[in-house]
Design goal:
Strand content: under 5%
Oligomer: single chain
Largest sheet: none
Keywords: Membrane, Transmembrane, Transmembrane helix
Structural class: mainly alpha
Helix content: over 70%
Distance between the termini: 8 Å
Number of strands: 0
């Protein structure tokens, strides 16, 4: 159980940062090259919000473990 907490926190932080990056791309703050697969901005902003919320839930679950 002690090994699960750092893993949950690390995965949660990585998912949150990835989701925030996708949200930033979807809102136009992060610019990708034209050859990128992330061209449909609204869809990636929606995916980013889901991924960021899941990452935050993992961080909260990891903080509750002792």
């Amino acid at each position: 159980m002690r090994r699960l907490r750092p893993i949950l926190l690390a995965v949660g932080v990585m998912l949150t940062l990835t989701g925030l990056l996708w949200i930033g791309q979807g809102l136009g703050y992060v610019h990708w090259p034209e050859s990128s697969f992330m061209l449909d901005q609204r869809r990636w902003a929606n995916y980013g919000s889901i991924v960021a919320a899941f990452g935050l839930l993992l961080v909260l679950a990891g903080r509750r473990l002792r």
